[in-house]
Amino acid sequence: xxxxxxxxxxxxxxxxxxxxxxxxxxxxxxxxxxxxxxxxxxxxxxxxxxxxxxxxxxxxxxxxxxxxxxxxxxxxxxxxxxxxxxxxxxxxxxxxxxxxxxxxxxxxxxxxxxxxxxxxxxxxxxxxxxxxxxxxxxxxxxxxxxxxxxxxxxxxxxxxxxxxxxxxxxxxxxxxxxxxxxxxxxxxxxxxxxxxxxxxxxxxxxxxxxxxxxxxxxxxxxxxxxxxxxxxxxxxxxxxxxxxxxxxxxxxxxxxxxxxxxxxxxxxxxxxxxxxxxxxxxxxxxxxxxxxxxxxxxxxxxxxxxxxxxxxxxxxxxxxxxxxxxxxxxxxxxxxxxxxxxxxxxxxxxxxxxxxxxxxxxxxxxxxxxxxxxxxxxxxxxxxxxxxxxxxxxxxxxxxxxxxxxxx
Length: 408
Hints:
The protein is α+β, with helices and mostly antiparallel strands.
């Protein structure tokens, strides 16, 4: 019998998405049922450039069915006279998503090819999957919101790489966690806080698995004290004087400049600056404010707009218009280069990223005496501890100034 070849294929979905799946040919027998198996769907979706639509029809038995079909140009034909399918262009975020997900799917394909070459078909067995901790971890990752999901998927990839794609619930315990911790500590390609983030997510998954009886009862209590130390990082920010200088320095990407200064006035992340629309700006007793769901945490942010922010936005437009939405058409790497030149032209010698403008907003609030709980709410942090951790050094400096003023 010919060796089974594993091929990565795509299935059209609605809303111009595609589902990635593995095709096995010749088919192999499912170890649970004995039936021939040709496909494994990966639960990985990518954006499609092919324009499609969902149509509904009735089959010969009277069943109401639907299918995804291509949309063709009415007049355009190829050199053979066949109709040409309509295409859509992808923005930079969508392209990056596709690259990451396609590489992830390819890694799984390579693993599955090794599995079938070795005659190991447990990856398709429901009985085996029930004890598959990697599958359990992936289910948690898939349940997260879009931005948070990306970090969970990255943590999954690291766990997948370490285990070779095979990790059963019975293996989870002190020894495994200690060994995985050592593996992360030895990864020179990862930043320390990234390592910590990956390890924390493993422990979150173990805690959830313990609650649901997926691992031996008491497993989380055994590993709870195993931890990794975060790196003591210094946040970089711009002073109000430096922001005033930047405001008067030209930038090759004027829209990016306005978005960055808007972030420093309101505290939005870059993803949120791009995502919010005029419809998210409401009017209240205290003036105008942004009220919308954040991209990273999905938490609702209530951000007041000051005079600087309003002057940057200019005249109000239709509710569906995104003031900085056009930034999606430019690569983030290109935007960052333009930022570095803009900051350099202003004579500011700091390593500034877009996120530093959000830090600048927070530091300005703290420096003006705003209490940390209010700062936390204005930044949209889920926990005040996140705010304290990020801005502890700034707060400590303010404490020193306060103490120095108590002289009699």
